[in-house]
TrEMBL record, chains A, B:
Residues 195-336 form the MoaB/Mog domain. The lineage of its organism: Bacteria, Bacillati, Actinomycetota, Actinomycetes, Micrococcales. It is an enzyme of class 2 (transferase). This is Molybdopterin molybdenumtransferase. Catalyzes the insertion of molybdate into adenylated molybdopterin with the concomitant release of AMP. It catalyses: adenylyl-molybdopterin + molybdate = Mo-molybdopterin + AMP + H(+). Belongs to the MoeA family. It comes from Paraoerskovia sediminicola. Its cofactor is Mg(2+). Pathway: Cofactor biosynthesis; molybdopterin biosynthesis. It comes from the Bacteria. Its EC number is 2.10.1.1. InterPro entries: MoaB/Mog-like_dom_sf, MoaB/Mog_dom, MoeA-like, MoeA_C_domain_IV, MoeA_C_domain_IV_sf, MoeA_linker/N, MoeA_linker/N_sf. NCBIfam families: Glp_gephyrin, molyb_syn. Pfam families: MoCF_biosynth, MoeA_C, MoeA_N.
Amino acid sequence: MQPVSRSVDEHRASVLAAVGPTPVVDVPLEDSVGMVLGGPLVARADVPPFDNAAMDGYAVRTADVADATPEDPCVLRLVGDVSAGRTDPSSAAPVVTPGTAVRIMTGAPVPDGADAVVPVERTDTGRFEHGPLDGADTSVTVRSPGRGHVRHRAEDLTVGDTLAPAGTLVTSRVASVAASVGLASLPVHRRPRVVVISTGSELAADGAPGPGRIPDSNSYLLAASARNAGAEVVRRGAVPDTVDALRAVLDAAAGATPADLIITSGGVSAGAMDVVRHLLTTADEATGATVAAVGMQPGKPQVLASWREVPVVAVPGNPVAAFVSFEMFVRPALRRLRGEPDVAPPTVERVAGSGWSSPPGRLQVVPVVHEPGGAVRPAGRRDGRGSGAHRVSALVTADALALIDPDVDEVCPGDTVRVLLLGG
Amino acid sequence: MQPVSRSVDEHRASVLAAVGPTPVVDVPLEDSVGMVLGGPLVARADVPPFDNAAMDGYAVRTADVADATPEDPCVLRLVGDVSAGRTDPSSAAPVVTPGTAVRIMTGAPVPDGADAVVPVERTDTGRFEHGPLDGADTSVTVRSPGRGHVRHRAEDLTVGDTLAPAGTLVTSRVASVAASVGLASLPVHRRPRVVVISTGSELAADGAPGPGRIPDSNSYLLAASARNAGAEVVRRGAVPDTVDALRAVLDAAAGATPADLIITSGGVSAGAMDVVRHLLTTADEATGATVAAVGMQPGKPQVLASWREVPVVAVPGNPVAAFVSFEMFVRPALRRLRGEPDVAPPTVERVAGSGWSSPPGRLQVVPVVHEPGGAVRPAGRRDGRGSGAHRVSALVTADALALIDPDVDEVCPGDTVRVLLLGG
């Protein structure tokens, strides 16, 4: 199968068409953080659930204290003491009748009959000592009018309110509000299951590689990136370039609990031993294969197929190309799997702090690093042969990817460039 | 103990003084992502580890093909076939002598004698079929001079290079480069162990709360925020306002494997049942307590102490105050525990898209949300009484915190405000 030429956007559209959102499952609040709502978040309880004190003080009738002055204070008889959560169901709740008050702590239900809380600082009591009401405290003296300081039932949120639509990321804050409105779980898209396969007979899985071998690094890169993007990941490093070895790991990934997405690196070019491309374009288990020559540097050779109906995104083995391919094609696919509404890479504008050349006719994707002033320059060590951004050393410091359009053949210092900010 | 007045910066400095970086441990690469280097990342191997082909093609001697032209091509005898990782130690590696070439695939070691790779596209072969060299292929015809296309040993990274200093966040990219330079693990600060305790007799841990009770939401907020900030978290929701209950959870947190930090919410004000403040300022197990009236809205009452030598940051129970306190005080402490060099909340400037009032003399911390044009406005539903940003509903949509200086009493539309961007 010969490659078809494609733009970056065309190839991304193909990858996105191969995946859809994972099923919606009910997940306990604590585990739902970082996932995406598969249905709206609807309040099951009012917030607050009952009228309660906004301050420590005394629950009163506004009418009783309306005329209080320093010279002519209002003295109210204490008929009870309530604090948050201390309502004793075995005894009658205190009721505030004319001329009486109830000592009340922040968050406690406002007693029947009362419609305001006078903060303790505005009474002759001044402040409370720790502990229950002293038997000697039989009255409270108020020397100014008081009103308010009551948080009314449902003044913040009401049963049935839709707080967030499907597609919303569950942050720690969203989870806590869900708890406030009476929910113990949330409907979210289950985490995408991803299998990362790093191929190459030259790869050593761990430890010191032998002659002609290099350490596998792509499986770490792709697995950690997918995990940071919210996926559950199985990492298969250093799979040799044989049909049998590759078939075995693909079959395992598409087995009893099939992955939602398989990501391979290496073996997609036109070399005689490029077994990923060979197998995905010839095996009976593989369907719908596309071999693409994508207008992107690095990362031109790309393969997209399905293995026993599981989508396979096959990216090149060069580490910078694999990384760029993840950000341009795989991360958007993971966003769609997670149920996120916006899946395209979001870009911002930056000023180029140095210049470099770019290949005409291809989108150049350059690992860059922000300088102290906010401009960006290619990451990695420069040498006489180029920016250095094609080297793995660039990956250490890069904090963004500059996207240089195909019609640009040179970036000059001071030019505005689009960049994609990188996370962890 | 009466409160001491403190600015936000003063209280943050006190909290930071109570914690230090966790011990440095050696962690396998795959688990190190998201942690912070406790020592420099030093290359243990060259990258590349040996001279290798940058393209699929033929390894040649540059001198042999220097004079090749379309009319007077250079025909070289094939003496071998190498691909990445297929070096057979039992047979002698092919050597390129004058007049010969070796078929070579990307990543394979360049044979002795050769100093360049001629890409297959530039030879009469045109392209390779998948599989080993055909016995009929005994020569290759080159019609133009060829040089280069060799990646030289150590041209990217050299043994002993320091790639990243202590204090660097281990991203997926850093972990993959560490693999490339021969490392299987990294020295990182162990994850901070954090215990989150939500106090309040009015709190119901799960399910439908009874009369006078409200759901515990702060433990979800604080636990998930701490987890997102890189901590291992134990969550203790809905601890009642009794000395015995609080002592028990604090003792557990400071037990056999003590936490690095305890975060409590609720019970820090001057109410008669504010047991956190009471216990941390009176118990024998508690030392160095400070009760602070911090110049911040919300989140004025704060307590800092140690319980059996474990630092305790005690924040107010109001959900928005607890959230703001986490971002202003707890997150910086977690950064320090993780070994991050920069711990203060990083702010950026934004334009206010609407106006609101701010209390003089206190730093106002306002949950805000970005509008489509990039300006920010208070999150949450507005009502007649204020911006709505003090309500839990504001937490659903807030994506930043605006920090309004104490000398500002009104923010007008169009004003520049400092904001702290929020993560998950």
